[in-house]
Design the sequence.
């Protein structure tokens, strides 16, 4: 189990490093998705299956769809169409594919040899998470959603506003 944890942690660190060093937004998004999936596997190996599922559903799913939507919305025309042809090239997908394959193999091996989780002694039911999240932390959840909306509007304004990238 600890081998799975360390490999997933290494993949998360490597993918995160590659996310922040890529100059192409789509490449950075691909590595960010791999990083979020690796963090979900780390949560799973620590016995937090619910947190791992939330990581995949909310971050790797919903938030990444929002990011991809922003990238599509900021499409800069003919110049961007030429770059999009380069994104489809197989060599671009080698890095994220290798890291994802490592994660998938580790997850399969972990599930095949799964034993009782000694770390997760007191499991928190999903209803308790919802009660806390939308109870005392409701303001934090709403502020996070407003921050995402502000980032979306700001990215659009930077790209399409006066003196922006697309003008």
Sequence:
């Amino acid at each position: 189990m600890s081998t799975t944890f360390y490999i997933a942690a290494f993949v998360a660190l490597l993918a995160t490093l590659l996310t922040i060093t890529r100059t192409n937004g789509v490449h950075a998004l691909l590595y960010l998705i791999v990083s979020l999936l690796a963090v979900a596997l780390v949560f799973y190996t620590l016995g937090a299956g619910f947190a791992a599922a939330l990581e995949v559903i909310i971050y790797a799913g919903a938030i990444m769809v929002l990011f991809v939507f922003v990238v599509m919305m900021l499409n800069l025309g003919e110049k961007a169409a030429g770059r999009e042809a380069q994104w489809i090239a197989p060599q671009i997908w080698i890095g994220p594919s290798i890291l994802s394959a490592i994660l998938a193999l580790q997850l399969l091996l972990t599930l095949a040899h799964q034993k009782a989780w000694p770390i997760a002694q007191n499991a928190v039911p999903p209803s308790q998470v919802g009660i806390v999240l939308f109870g005392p932390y409701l303001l934090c959840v709403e502020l996070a959603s407003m921050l995402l909306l502000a980032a979306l509007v700001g990215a659009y304004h930077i790209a399409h506003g006066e003196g922006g990238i697309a003008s």
About this structure: The chain has seven helices and no strands. Residues 124-167 form one domain.
